[in-house]
Amino acid sequence: MKIGITGKLFLFVCSPGAAVVVVQGAAIRFVMERGFLGRSAESVQLDRFAELI
After folding, report:
1. Which residues does 11 contact at the CB level (< 8 Å), separation at least 6?
2. Which of 10, 32, 41, 51 has the fewest CB atoms within 10 Å, counting from its CB?
């Protein structure tokens, strides 16, 4: 089955968008698994504790 010019143009336009979505999803998963939210919450608690002292 041959892909026509319309199909090629569609793939050419949509491929970069799909690649960005996949890379962004992988990056978010990596950051969440590394405990980004936990570290940011700890820093807020430390800042509050420092203000009390």
Report:
1. 3
2. 51
